[in-house]
């Protein structure tokens, strides 16, 4: 089973230009085991088949590794079961990672994964992103912020942009069909101090699964009133 897993993840990773060593493959296998074990107690993922876990969780997370600058401080907002933050940390030991989630039981799972995989310079924090973004200890302190399948781009911009330093970036991971979403989010992105810098459209390896990565560059400091209080960015996007 593990041999099969290693062959598959190695093959997929090669397709996106990432070479995994033996230790990393062992860590990914152990991560998968923990994910499936905890998934029986708390709802972490609907994806449980090995091939799908590899492709739709692990490889999908790694597709943004090339956009993260060296030695960056990265925050993964609404990380859930640790995607994309944990896979990124496993292949990019140079980066510092904060995993943010609003559910404490998921944070307990993340802490277990971090401990069992022996990862360093990574921490899981329990908080609503709106509260976190207004905390002076964290606001505008990250080089990069990322998020996968958390909210539409207008709302997501209000979550991510306040966390990033000037000249930092937000890496928004999206599925197919994003044209309307980008149009509708232009005002929010601009108000919050950002601009759309890059859109990368591709398919996950050996599949017909469309992915879009939208990179926002932060040009100006975010006005102090953002993010608004919990629930507002989703209820009334800018």
Walk me through what this model shows.
The protein has 238 residues and is an alpha/beta fold. It is built from nine helices and seven strands. A seven-stranded mixed β-sheet has the order 3-2-1-4-5-7-6, sandwiched between helices. Strand 2 (96-101), helix 5 and strand 3 (122-126) form a beta-alpha-beta unit. The protein is globular. The model has no long low-confidence stretch (mean pLDDT 96).
Main attributes of the structure:
238 residues, alpha/beta, seven-stranded mixed beta sheet
Order of helices and strands: HHHEHEHEHEHEHEEH
The side-by-side strand order for the widest beta sheet comes to 3-2-1-4-5-7-6
What summary fits the major beta sheet?
7 strands, mixed
Strand element count: 7
In helices, the fraction of residues equals: 40-55%
Structural class by SSE content: alpha/beta
Percent strand: 15-25%
Give me the number of helical elements: 9
Write the layout of secondary structure elements.
Elements: H1 2-15, H2 22-39, H3 50-62, E1 73-77, H4 85-91, E2 96-101, H5 104-117, E3 122-126, H6 129-133, E4 142-148, H7 153-160, E5 164-174, H8 179-191, E6 194-203, E7 210-218, H9 232-235
Parallel strand pairs: 1-2, 1-4, 2-3, 4-5
Antiparallel strand pairs: 5-7, 6-7
Helix pairs in contact: 1-3, 2-5, 3-4, 7-8
């Amino acid at each position: 089973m593990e041999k099969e897993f290693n062959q598959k993840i190695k093959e997929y990773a090669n397709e996106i230009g990432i070479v995994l060593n033996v230790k990393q493959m062992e860590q990914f296998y152990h991560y998968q085991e923990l994910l499936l074990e905890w998934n029986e107690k708390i709802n972490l993922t609907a994806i449980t088949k090995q091939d799908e876990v590899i492709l739709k969780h692990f490889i999908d997370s790694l597709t943004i590794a090339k956009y993260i600058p060296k030695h960056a401080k990265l925050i993964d907002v609404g990380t859930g079961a640790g995607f994309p933050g944990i896979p990124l940390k496993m292949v990019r030991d140079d980066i510092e990672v904060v995993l943010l989630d609003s559910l404490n039981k998921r944070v307990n799972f993340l802490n277990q994964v971090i401990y069992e995989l022996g990862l360093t310079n990574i921490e899981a924090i329990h908080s609503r992103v709106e509260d976190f973004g207004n905390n002076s200890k964290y606001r505008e302190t990250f080089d990069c912020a990322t998020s996968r399948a958390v909210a539409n781009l207008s709302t997501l911009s209000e979550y991510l942009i306040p966390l990033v330093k000037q000249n930092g970036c937000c890496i928004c991971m999206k599925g197919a069909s994003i044209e309307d979403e980008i149009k509708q989010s232009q005002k929010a992105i601009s108000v919050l101090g950002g601009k759309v810098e890059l859109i990368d459209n591709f398919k996950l390896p050996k599949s017909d699964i469309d992915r879009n990565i939208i990179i926002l560059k932060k040009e100006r400091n975010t006005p102090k009133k953002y993010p608004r209080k919990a629930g507002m960015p989703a209820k009334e996007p800018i």
